[in-house]
Design brief:
The protein has 163 residues and is α+β, with helices and mostly antiparallel strands. It has three helices and nine strands.
């Protein structure tokens, strides 16, 4: 009896032809292109939002809590903005999230612009903060990593809110 040599076991090894390789390169390139386009578009949108909310002006007078209370200042109109409690005495407010670093950063800052708050309070994870821009004075709050800064200027009016 003759022994037949054992045939090699057949593995289903796929072979990729040039068409498959070219197709894969085209699909991957298109995907990377679309993702890059979206990232550039989102970044430009973030820069535009930052510019729209950016105002320049002198800093608001700041006070310690004891001095604020000793002068009987109040900020009874309060609201929660993503875990930060913001108070004002009067006026209207408009807030937005903006990307830090001129709109190019990865962190998100909170920006609120006020028509005439008179006084401002901020309670965040970083503590309590008190500002007194004064009656009739517009103001803006920038809150970066829970630390607020106040500027005595604002682009917000009730007229541009109606638009």
């Amino acid at each position: 009896m003759a022994i037949k040599p054992r045939q090699a076991e057949s593995f289903s090894a796929r072979r990729f032809g040039m068409v498959h390789v070219i197709s894969a390169v085209v699909v991957v390139t298109a995907g990377v292109g679309l993702i890059s386009f979206q990232l550039v578009k989102d970044r430009q949108s973030a820069v535009d939002t930052f510019k729209a909310w950016q105002v320049k002006g002198p800093p608001c007078p700041a006070m310690r809590e004891a001095d604020f209370q000793a002068k009987h200042y109040t900020a009874l109109k309060t609201f929660d903005y993503d875990g930060t409690t913001i108070g004002r005495t009067a006026g209207d407010v408009s807030c937005s999230d903006v990307k830090s670093g001129g709109g190019k950063g990865f962190a998100t800052d909170k920006v609120c612009q006020f028509t005439s708050p008179a006084t401002l309070t901020v309670a965040s994870k970083a503590g309590k903060f008190f500002f007194v821009p004064g009656a009739g004075q517009p103001a803006s709050l920038y809150i970066h990593h829970d630390l607020p800064s106040c500027i005595m200027a604002s682009n917000f009016t009730l007229q541009n809110e109606a638009e």
